Amino acid sequence: MEYLQFGCQVLVGGVFAVSAGSKVYSRAAFADFAAATTRLTGAGTGRARQLAAGTVAAEIAVVVALIVPVLVPWGFAGGIGLLAVFSAAIVRSLRRGQRAPCRCFGASSSPLGTQHVARNAVLAAIGALGIAASLSEVTSSLDIGLACVVAFAALLGVVLTARLDDLIGLFRATTATSQLGKHQ
């Protein structure tokens, strides 16, 4: 269970770290995220900037909680809560017919869609798995070699999550190209 917990910590914490980092690595990145928050929530510019800053602060708090051993279950719970809020905002936006880019991981221009809600649901399920693993009574030390393998697999999950829009776009382009070839 420790390796499962460790893998969930690296995956969920890594996704939130990349997400927060992509929003604050420059003033322009944060301004883009604040503008996306305005479109997504309908809040005024000043309120949207506060919401954007609060979002980044909450994401960083989740990452820190997932690093501090006594806070790990709370980090997973906070991550699940954030993902629920993000999903609710996406669903609300989709119902209003708005498909503006969410800027979840920086400069993506892919419009919001159900794939983002599905992504958040999978991450929340991983967070729930992490809570269950962290509440188990088993305590022993991790083998460094196996921990590295688990961390590598989890980091691969972080990359795939952060680049989900690109992967979907790649497969859509490939499918469209192959169907175009069939019609010629």
UniProtKB/TrEMBL annotation:
Topology relative to the membrane: Multi-pass membrane protein
Pfam short name (any one): MauE
Coiled coil residues, start to end: none
Record localization: Membrane
Methylamine utilisation protein MauE domain sequence ranges: 1-132
GO biological process annotation, one example: methylamine metabolic process
Top-level division of the source organism's lineage: Bacteria
One Gene Ontology cellular component annotation held by this UniProt entry: membrane
Keywords: Membrane, Transmembrane, Transmembrane helix
Keyword Membrane applies: yes
Regions crossing the membrane: 51-68, 74-91, 117-136, 142-162
Protein name: Methylamine utilization protein MauE
Organism of derivation: Kribbella amoyensis
